[in-house]
Amino acid sequence: MAENALIIGAGISGISCAITLINKGFVGQITIIEQGASHKARLCSVDSMGICTNCSPCKTISGFGGSVHYGDTVKLSCFPSGKRLINTLGGSRSEEFQSLALSYFSDDVLKFITPSKENSLFIEKEYPISILHSKKAKGILDEWCLKLSNKPNVKVLFNCEVTNIEKQNNTFSVSYKEKREHKEIYADTVVLCMGRAGFRKMKQFAREINIVSKPPQVSIGFRFMMPNYILQEVCNIHPDFKTSLNHNGYKYKTFCFSAGDIGGRIKHANHGGFMLIDGHSITDDETPSPLSNFAILSQLRDSSGNFYDYDWIENNVILPYIELNTTHKGKPVLQSYNDFKVGKVTKLSNEHLAKFNSQIYGVGNLASLIPSKEQHIGFCNSLEELITEFCRISEIKEPLSNVLAQISVLGLELESLWDEIELSQDMETNIPSLFVTGDSTGIAQGILQASVGGIAAAYGILKDSL
Ligand SMILES: Cc1cc2nc3c(=O)[nH]c(=O)nc-3n(C[C@H](O)[C@H](O)[C@H](O)COP(=O)(O)OP(=O)(O)OC[C@H]3O[C@@H](n4cnc5c(N)ncnc54)[C@H](O)[C@@H]3O)c2cc1C
User: Fold this and answer.
1) What three-state secondary structure class fits 372?
2) How many A from CA of 438 to the centre of ligand 1?
3) In the predicted model, is pLDDT for residue 50 greater than 90?
4) 440 and 406: one domain?
5) Is residue 124 domain-resident?
6) For the residues 155-175, what does the mean pLDDT come to?
7) Same domain, yes or no, for 238 and 139?
8) 412, pLDDT greater than 90
9) What is the torsion angle, in degrees rounded to the nearest 10, for the CA atoms of residue 251, residue 255, residue 259 and residue 265?
């Protein structure tokens, strides 16, 4: 059995891996290196209507909890959401690890809503979803932090960024930066769980130490924001309305549905030079939002159907996006849906921009970031098809044009930026004792899926003793 384990990233998968090692009696040293701060020191100025101060690393996606920002609501989507992770782990192990992961999130019985296909022809998968109130989610992070800090064989190093990994014989030599000081640590087992904030570093490590992987399958997306009443009933039948549509040879998927009684909040994640947005439901009734939102994503492929490589995406999507917001470069851009459809920049007043609770948004033609005209048309067709269905569900009798006129488009979203790592059923790479979990694997995203992956890696580390 390994004598010590080094976990890089204190996000959901890293924490779940550490908790599992402890619960299963691992007696060696467990060190977690996290580039961000502890969970209570992760305030984002944009969340309180301020200007983004370009924190490095971004506090929304870095620190204890990773992409689960202290104070946000958590949506847990059970399998078969995250099908590729099931394929890696095997059916019965994924079920076993999912039950364990759910027990980490709550000692109580979690309440689940399972959407039914009977409610809409658009519902494809019937999987249970549980929503954890922001107060509950805060309590879980507090509990996990306490559990880890109370163990004598666990050390969590905050504000330390891992910069390099090498393997010499059977030992990993890992360099990290603490403030301006460069330090080194040795470990016989390493678990990489660096999530969104670490997507570039993950690519670098994979290249430098020859981790076998496939190129990413990146999707471009836009978030559509609208008054709550349009999505109110939809959220009651499906809190995470996932569906896919096909138009003009492209596939469009809904993503991260943030709607309901108190609407959805936009989250702003700085990826180093450019900011991507995400949605979040809010169950904190002290800060209700009048707006709900969801995103539509579509994979970035060339005319022969092949995925563009990451360099192409950097040059043809990310760099033009950085230039689109002329006041705050690399920050989100807003457009009315009707202007997005015809490719026109929207003339918005400051008062209008303020409605979106942010001083960093600019106006620009988001549609110009879509590589092909057909794919742009497909985005519009998909949105209109979905809104027609949502109006049916919510019994809205207004003409479609009235509803569409109330929709704003916000960008940019980019998903699946990670290379797809080749993994064993223990989440081990081709390099013995090097494990990858969570978003960094490039095979499944999601909070519950990250936790399941972390548990599987811990079982892999303990394999000989279990
Ligand atoms: C705003 C937002 C809302 C979301 N909402 C949901 C939701 O409701 N439901 C859902 O299922 N999924 C949601 N997701 C996705 C989900 O949060 C992620 O899939 C999940 O957190 C991934 O866990 P992880 O451990 O892989 O990475 P993360 O949770 O992102 O953690 C990775 C950690 O690694 C650290 N790190 C990175 N590089 C280094 C380095 N070089 N050195 C040291 N530390 C490093 C980072 O600072 C970070 O703390 C959301 C994501 C975002 C951004």
Assistant:
1) coil
2) 8
3) no
4) no
5) no
6) 96
7) no
8) yes
9) -130
pLDDT for position 262: 65
CA distance 256 to 72: 14
- The response to whether residue 453 sits with its C-beta less than 6 Å from ligand 1 reads no
Residue 386 confidence class, pLDDT cut points 50, 70, 90: very high
| 286, pLDDT greater than 70 | no
DSSP letter string, 280-317 = EE---TTS--SEEEEEEEEE-B-TTSPBPPHHHHIIII
195 lines ligand 1 (CB under 6 A): yes
Q: From CA 166, how far away is CA 146, in angstroms rounded?
A: 32
| Whether residue 264 has its Cβ less than 6 Å from ligand 1 | no
> 371 and 251, same structural domain?
yes
**Parallel, antiparallel or unpaired: strands 250-258 and 244-247:** antiparallel
> In the chain, what is the greatest distance between 2 CA atoms, to the nearest angstrom?
69
**What confidence score (pLDDT) does residue 281 get?**
67
What proportions of the chain, in percent to the nearest 5, are helix, strand and coil?
35, 25, 40
Of 382, 398, 415, which residue constitutes the final position of a domain? 415
Do 315 and 202 belong together in one domain?
no
State the pLDDT at residue 348.
Answer: 78
How many angstroms is it from 241 CA to the middle of ligand 1?
Answer: 21
Ligand 1 atom with minimal separation from the 447 CA: 11
Give yes or no: residues 145 and 16 share one domain: yes
13 CA closest ligand 1 atom index: 25
Whether 346 and 451 share a structural domain: no
Residues 302 and 411 in one domain: yes
Q: How far is the CA of 419 from the centre of ligand 1 (A)?
A: 16
Q: Average pLDDT in the 427-442 region?
A: 97
Q: What is the CATH number of the domain that holds 29?
A: 3.50.50.60
Is 265 near ligand 1, meaning CB less than 6 Å away? no
- Domains of the chain: total: 2
Instruction: State whether the beta carbon of 10 lies less than 6 angstroms from ligand 1.
Output: yes
What is the radius of gyration, based on Cα positions, of the chain? 22
CA-nearest residue, atom 35 of ligand 1: 9
Chain segment 2-20, per-residue pLDDT in tens: 789 999 999 999 999 999 9
Q: How does residue 359 score in pLDDT terms, banded at 50, 70 and 90?
A: confident
Structural domain containing residue 424: 4-115+134-215+420-461
Give me ligand 1 centre to Cα 449, in Å: 11
Side chain identity at residue 96, one-letter code: E
Q: Which atom of ligand 1 lies at the shortest distance from residue 448's CA?
A: 11
**Residue 125, in any domain of the structure:** no
Answer yes or no: is 127 within a domain. no
Are 164 and 304 within one domain? no
CA angle at residue 364 from 359 to 365, to 5 degrees? 145
Q: Is 129 a member of any domain?
A: no
CA of 364 to the centre of ligand 1 (A): 29
